[in-house]
Amino acid sequence: MRALRILVIVAVILGGLFVVADRVAVGFAEDEVAQKLKSSEGLTVTPDVSINGFPFLTQVAGGELDDVEVGISDYEATTGNSDDSIRIADLTAHMRGVKFSGDYSSATAASATGTATISYDELLKAAKSEPTRILPGVTAQVTGLSDGGNGKIKVNIKVSALGSSTTYPVLSTVTVDDDIVKVHADNLPNLVVQAAEGQVRSITDFQQKIDGLPGGITLDKVEAASDGVEISVRGSNVQLAG
Fold first, then answer.
1. In 3-state terms, what secondary structure has residue 1?
2. Using CA atoms, how far apart are residues 112 and 239, in angstroms rounded to an integer?
3. Tens of pLDDT along 185-240?
4. pTM of the predicted structure, to 2 decimals
5. How far apart are CA 29 and CA 43, in angstroms?
6. In sequence order, what are the residues at sequence separation of 6 or more whose Cβ sits closer than 8 angstroms to the Cβ of residue 101?
7. In the predicted model, what is the mean pLDDT of residues 162-170?
8. Superkingdom of the source (predicted)?
9. 3-state DSSP call for residue 202?
10. How far apart are CA 185 and CA 142, in angstroms?
11. Least CB-packed of 166, 188, 199, 228 within 10 Å?
């Protein structure tokens, strides 16, 4: 009995040491991947990296991690225009089947899914910023975006004529086409009776290209939310580092 008790105590101690060693190792690996990702993507802020699953050391022995979560704040994505960028407030991605080199200099995920949030103020930059003539003496411009409910964006259109102005709220649908976020008015304001539809839609409808996301992930779906548009992202053979 005494020998059995000793064996149990030893097993508990070794198990505890293994857990400690495992957590130390995973913490080191998370820091290394975060720094590599910051360097490879030219980030100003170090991303959050979480390696999920236990034990970590057995995953390392197999050369592949089950699930790695990456979170990046205030990511500047490119827009196809070298002079412009669009800020993604929060970008989160779950990477699965992550294979890596022994020194963590490179890591590639078999697949990735996640979300990206773009504020309405940031998306507003894609709309025409200056008043546009739609009728003789009449101009219009988009002055604000907000949540319209039921997955719609409310686009405020300011129409000015004869020294006065009126704001028309227009519910719009937001979609993704390849790497472009598109905003399309469901119904045009009454002024379309007087002005050609094309002229009005040149104000109400606009789009924003978003590319250059980390690791080559791409846009999938988009929906209006309370603080901005939420975009689903996905990818395969995604490069985390290297």
1. coil
2. 10
3. 998 876 655 566 778 888 889 999 988 888 788 899 999 999 999 999 998 888 76
4. 0.80
5. 19
6. 107, 242
7. 87
8. Bacteria
9. helix
10. 12
11. 166
Listed in sequence order, the residues at least 6 apart from 209 whose beta carbon sits closer than 8 Å to its beta carbon are: 79, 80, 179, 180, 181
pLDDT in tens, 68-113: 888 888 888 887 776 778 899 888 988 888 887 766 567 788 998 9
Answer for the pair 191, 200: CB distance below 8 angstroms, yes or no.
yes
Q: What is the DSSP string of 32-70?
A: HHHHHHHHHHT-SSPPEEEEESS-HHHHHHHTEEEEEEE
- Whether residue 118 contacts residue 110, with contact meaning beta carbons closer than 8 Å, is answered with no
Structure tokens belonging to residue 80: 């196809």
**Rg of the chain over all Cα atoms, to the nearest angstrom:** 25
Take residue 218 and report the two structure tokens written for it: 């791409």
For residues 99 and 240, is the Cβ–Cβ distance under 8 A? Answer: no
User: How far apart are alpha carbons 70 and 8 in whole angstroms?
Assistant: 39
Higher pLDDT: 223 or 9? It is 223
Amino acid making up residue 106: S
Q: Identity (one letter) of the amino acid at 118?
A: I
Contact 227, 119 (CB under 8 A): yes
pLDDT above 70 (res 131): yes
Signed CA dihedral, 198, 200, 203, 209: sign only: negative
DSSP state of 127: S
Rounded Cα distance, 29 and 103, in Å: 10
Amino acid identity of residue 209, one-letter, is K
Mean pLDDT of the chain: 81
